[in-house]
Amino acid sequence: MYFYRYMNKIIISNSKYGLGNDISEEDAMQEEGIIYYLTENEPGKFNRAWCLSHTSFFDFTKEDISLLTMPNAKYGNELPQWLIEKIECRQIMWINTQYPNWQHILEEKHRDKWRINIVGLGDVGGILLTGLRLMGGDVIEKIGIYDIDSNKVDRWLMEAGQILYPDENSIQPEVVYTDKDSLFDCDMFVFAVSAGVPPLSNSQSDVRMAQYEANSKIISEYAKLARQGKFKGIFAVVSDPVDLLCKKAFIESNINSNGQMDYEGLGPDQIRGYGLGVMRARAAYHAKKMGLGHSFEKYGRAYGPHGKGLVIADNIKCYDNNTSIMLTGKALNSNMEVRNVGFKPYIAPALSSGALSILATIRGQWHYSAVYLGGTYFGCRNRLNESGTELERLNMPDDLIERIKESYNSLGGM
């Protein structure tokens, strides 16, 4: 293994890199913070960065849903104890140097409070903003808002600005207007544009897919702006369908003026989709009505997209396939149940998938979001550590793995 000090960071690798300033293993061991493991894997088929949460990350050869399960084989017997301890403390970041802009990761600085910019102040965007204003004072410094309709901006500057705790000592993030040219002067950009939402009279079951054509054109524009601005923060997608829009944003931001994929835009690890949180919440709602509330809230899981292909697991400790499929169906139908009583179902998605999950991301807490996994943005339970995204890895029964695999393969083919 090789050890370096580069850009004032401790770097380790199994292959020789011409970084200069080689150091000894003893010097590397003195680092109390994050260290960086460099490797080379094909861009597009592998992510740009992960939290190295298991010794198997040192030599894994394929990036797919196997990263959601616990490895069967034992790894790491040959690793020094200090590296194993670093892994256990989540203090190693895995970096794929085949992405030309991999060094940008080394430039990232710890944020005490985040600056968030939201584009799109429709039903979802407005409620999302409300949630962040109410609950984000501990981790958000400022929320910038933008919409092509200036009246919506004016409305939400007033409405959100007038949400105030009665306690004068409470801290709430300031809400300000941001123009289009400044949208990527932030730590997290939130895409909440909702175009092409079917009217209540539309009986289409997968409403989110009806929005893809319109929303994909809009997100392409912002993805290109992120590339132009060399944006280094998180590009959060709340609009439907989140998983496919994440992939669209990744592709469009990495196409150069000659129409070629050069991977000089957004890293796949920068883009996250927020749609699965509400599906887990909807399943929990129905599980409670079935008398399974306590066990589901603790042991229930959700995987895949916010719509067709969703996988709900009733209990990862004692999985029941039939109950899980039933809960999946109920979660999927919840959208239409709200529409059938005359309302568009945007409040729970804006809060469960949006505000609450975004805040959990910022706080480094476990939550549900779609992350890049072998070329596909796939929803799962994960958390964002200082060393990168950590996936929850579980021992799963074969029938649950097969359901997840089917969902993953279906998304990958879109």
Automatic annotation (TrEMBL):
Single Gene Ontology MF annotation: oxidoreductase activity
SUPFAM superfamilies assigned to the protein according to its UniProt record, in alphabetical order: NAD(P)-binding Rossmann-fold domains
InterPro entries xref list: Lactate/malate_DH_N, NAD(P)-bd_dom_sf
Coiled coil location: none
Residue ranges occupied by any Lactate/malate dehydrogenase N-terminal domain in the UniProt entry: 115-255
Designated name of the protein: Malate/lactate dehydrogenase
UniProt organism field: Lutispora thermophila DSM 19022
